[in-house]
Design goal:
Layout lengths: L3 E12 L2 E2 L6 E2 L3 E10 L7 H10 L1 H7 L7 H15 L10 E6 L4 E6 L3 H10 L3 E6 L7 H8 L17 E5 L14 H4 L2 H13 L12 H7 L3 E5 L20 H10 L10 H8 L1 H34 L12 H30 L5 H5 L4 H6 L2 E4 L6 E4 L2 H31 L4 H29 L5 H29 L6 E2 L2 E2 L1 E2 L2 E2 L8 H43 L4 H9 L3 H6 L8 H16 L7 H23 L14 H23 L2 H10 L7 H4 L1 E3 L2 H6 L6 E3 L10 H31 L5 H31 L1
Helix pairs in contact: 1-2, 9-22, 10-11, 11-12, 11-22, 12-23, 12-27, 15-16, 15-17, 16-17, 16-18, 17-18, 17-21, 17-23, 18-22, 21-22, 21-23, 23-27
GO molecular function, one term: chloride channel activity
Membrane topology: Multi-pass membrane protein
Keywords: Cell membrane, Glycoprotein, Membrane, Transmembrane, Transmembrane helix
């Protein structure tokens, strides 16, 4: 019997944001795009009865699917998922509606769904959404705006963005206190669009479609198995500005973000963070707040670094080694170490202000729910000792065993970059060629390890999304830290250290250890940093801009190829009015913020850990971040499908990682100055031999032993080191060793002491924010108390 094949893409679950008064419901914009490859044949006829039963449930869908009743289990999973979602309340005829838009000739189906008001209220209380109590009148200004406002000076960075979102005192939603909340009489606008997306995604993510033990739960798993092609909320209209210009307050939120944020002309303006949060959610808004804050703080660091480089450039006319190895590097190292400590402290304050303004201060402690995948796959439930509610539970001992197994895999993977160090030194042809090859290996290994880390973290079964992301980030960062920093660390602290001397060279695996060039190891280190740091930034920017354009072009080309089956009139009408759900399907999937954070944090490490070797690193980072902000803004507004809004209290585990890098930077710069640079030997020679440094080069060179000279026809050889003619260390070597160790101790103690003083003097939460938090808690308590009194009065009257 002949077997027929058909490729069918089903766009399912579009939740429209529209409203109807007088007993109607509020519907929500949310799109789930499904795709599956189905085989048709008589040997699949037993599945016909199941399909016929499903078609009876949704008659409108049945008329289109009934000709294809022999389907593979892939369709059964999608159908079962739809039925279970209906049980959650989506497909009830009396309260919800399903709208199916089928384009038969294009083999594409769009299903538009809506959810009832009662379902929204139930899950809003279930996932602890915060809703407004009262408007906050005080304007939300950043520190620079406040300073310029007090001085009555104009602010060239500000811009008047239309329709600014209001700031509210809020508390957690309760259905029995609905009348106490601001705007509760307007059901169509009471919940924000991002909150509605969160509610609906929570339902879809926890709905099983097969065996729970096998992890067949939720829409994300179906997307990964290609049963569905994608899942995304709808954008709010087109981002392009209307052709006849309209007043700014008449623009949509997406158009406002495009006009006042995503365009390149906005590079010197404040980012509209409240608008970003209103459209994309708190997690994405916090990322842009972080990178914007970091970029502003790079201005003084890049200025000082550029001045130090120019000083070294002038001195390099006499000796090339002084380009990066001069007295200014000591000042730059101290300055950048203190800069990093101060920057993190003030970011902590800025983050606390944003978390309060965006109602996320207690998100991780009181509001965050278990991950839907964890809820569905947890083997047991336990009673919460605080709330008394039954909650899903995964045994800690079992999770610990899985975590230890993951650690063993991480150790094996981390050993891969380390094993390249000696090999790369042995086969090194030229420094630049080796640096470029090292960058290629780094990028290839990164792709493999990220996929492995994601699988391991999912296997460990972490309860909350924050914990899941923190453990995933930690795994990847450990590998990336070694992957990107292993080569610079080798050049900075090991290259040229264990070479030996003529006649007694040290070897490893039969290969002589590598020595530094005539200009010292700092020049090699600066070259390595520039290639890795600048090269990685260029590659990432090219990928984000050109590769994204190519993907979008290819996606649209595939859709246009499908349209060729239609006649010219249909194509013409289609091009005039493209539905929003289909226009969004042509966009690319948002890959999350992990790569964006990782790129910025690794950059932070390069400009702090090795700044003594490359004073221009902060300047390159500043230029890159200016471009990065515009590229990311343009991607999210114009190139990406709208992601599901996620809440976040801070930037997560990235902040402890930044603190770790800051501490490593202090120690690294101390060792770089003490052992890699010639600053301390020059200082020692200046105060013990000659203040003009005449004869300093000869002072740092030793003469080869007599045995070596005799073997080479009495030729004398000079090499870098403090040894006598027998190869033994001179007293000057031990004097310098004591000075170097003393310098490291003094350097790190002074920097850590000043950093601790800054930490004590600058509170984590500003005083005005603490007052707002107390005011909000008081209002929430008053709302609860009044509701209790009203309830008690009603009972007594009855």
């Amino acid at each position: 019997m002949e077997v027929f094949c058909l490729f069918c893409v089903v766009l399912c679950f579009v939740f429209l944001t529209n409203f109807l008064c007088c007993g109607h419901f509020v519907s929500i914009n949310f799109v789930l795009f499904m795709s599956f490859l189905s085989l048709f044949g008589t040997f699949l006829s037993p599945l016909c009865n199941f399909v016929t039963y499903f078609c009876c449930l949704v008659s409108r869908f049945c008329r289109l699917v009934s000709p294809f009743c022999h389907l593979v289990p892939c369709f059964c999973r999608s159908a079962l998922f739809c039925r279970l979602s209906a049980a959650a309340g989506f497909f009830l005829n009396d309260t919800c509606r399903i709208r199916v838009v089928l384009l038969e000739k294009k083999k594409t189906s769009f299903v538009l769904l809506s959810a009832p008001w009662s379902l929204l209220c139930y899950y809003a209380e279930e996932i602890s959404l915060r809703v407004p109590l009262q408007v906050v009148e005080a304007p939300n200004l950043n520190s620079s705006e406040q300073v310029l406002s007090k001085l009555s000076l104009p602010n060239p960075l500000s811009q008047d963005v239309p329709n600014p979102p209001a700031d509210y005192y809020t508390c957690q939603f309760r259905t029995n206190k609905l009348q106490r909340f601001l705007g509760s009489d307007h059901q169509e606008t009471f919940f924000k669009t991002t909150q509605r997306h969160q509610v609906l995604y929570e339902i879809l993510a926890r709905t099983p479609y097969g065996s729970v033990k096998k992890g067949e739960v939720g829409i994300d798993r179906l997307v990964s198995e290609q049963v569905f092609t994608a899942a995304y909320p709808l954008h709010q209209g087109d981002f392009r500005l209307p052709s006849p210009p309209v007043p700014p307050h008449c623009l949509g939120l997406r158009q406002i973000l495009y006009a006042y944020w995503a365009q390149w002309s906005c590079w010197r303006r404040y980012q509209p963070l409240d608008h970003i949060r209103e459209y994309f959610g708190e997690k994405i808004a916090l990322y842009f707040a972080w990178i914007g804050f970091y970029t502003v703080w790079l201005l003084p660091a890049s200025l000082v670094g550029t001045v130090i480089f120019l000083i070294g450039f002038v001195q390099a006319k006499q000796r090339a080694g002084l380009l990066f190895d001069n007295g200014g590097t000591v000042f730059l190292s101290v300055f950048l170490s203190l800069w990093a400590v101060t920057f993190l402290q003030y970011w902590k304050r800025r983050c606390s202000v944003l978390a309060h303004c965006w109602d996320c201060s207690d998100f991780e402690d009181t509001e965050e729910r278990p991950r839907p995948e964890f809820t569905a796959m947890a083997p047991m439930t336990v009673r919460n000792p605080v709330t008394g509610a039954e909650e899903p539970y995964f045994p800690e001992q079992k999770r610990l065993n899985r975590t230890l197994t993951s650690c063993m895999v991480i150790i094996i993977m981390v050993g891969t970059p380390c094993s390249r160090l000696h090999i790369s030194a042995a086969v090194r042809i030229t420094s630049i060629t080796a640096s470029v090859l090292n960058l290629v290996v780094i990028l290839l290994l990164s792709k493999v390890y990220i996929a492995l880390a994601r699988v391991l973290t999912r296997w460990e079964m972490h309860r909350t999304q924050t914990k899941y992301e923190d453990m995933f980030i930690l795994k990847v960062f450990i590998f990336q830290f070694v992957n990107f920093y292993s080569s610079p660390v080798y050049i900075a602290f090991f290259k040229g250290r264990f070479v030996g001397y003529p006649g007694n060279y040290n070897t490893m695996f039969g290969v002589r250890n590598e020595d530094c060039g005539a200009g010292g190891c700092l020049i090699d280190l600066a070259q390595e940093l520039l290639v890795i740091m600048v090269g990685k930034q260029l590659i990432n920017n090219i990928q984000e801009f050109f590769l994204l354009k190519v993907k979008s072009w290819w996606q649209k080309r595939k859709l246009n190829h499908q349209k060729k089956e239609e006649d010219e009139e249909e194509v013409h009408n289609y091009q005039e009015e493209v539905p929003q759900w289909e226009a969004d399907y042509q966009l690319q999937v948002c890959g999350g913020l992990f790569d964006e954070y990782l790129e910025t944090v690794l950059q932070f490490g390069f400009i702090t850990i090795f700044v003594a070797a490359c004073p221009l690193a902060p300047l390159f980072a500043l230029i890159n971040n200016w471009v990065e902000i515009r590229l990311d803004a343009h991607k999210f507004v114009t190139e990406y499908r709208r992601p599901v809004a996620e809440r976040a209290q801070d930037i997560g585990i990235w902040f402890p990682i930044l603190q770790f890098i800051t501490h490593m930077a202090v120690l690294s710069n101390a060792f770089l100055i003490a052992f890699t640079s010639s600053f301390l030997p020059r200082l020692y020679y200046r105060y013990t031999r000659d203040s003009t440094l005449r004869g300093f080069i000869s002072f740092t060179l030793a003469t080869s032993p007599h045995t070596f000279s005799q073997q080479h026809h009495n030729a004398s050889c000079r090499y870098r080191g403090f040894r006598d003619e027998n190869g033994e260390y001179l007293p000057e070597y031990f004097h310098l060793l004591a000075i170097r160790l003393g310098f490291i101790i003094v350097f790190e103690h002074v920097v850590f002491f000043i950093g601790r003083l800054i930490d004590l003097m600058v509170p984590d939460i500003p005083e005005e924010v603490e007052l707002k938090i107390k005011r909000e808690h008081y209002m929430a308590k008053e709302a609860l108390a009044e509701n209790q009194v009203q309830t008690l009065t009603c009972h007594q009257s009855v």
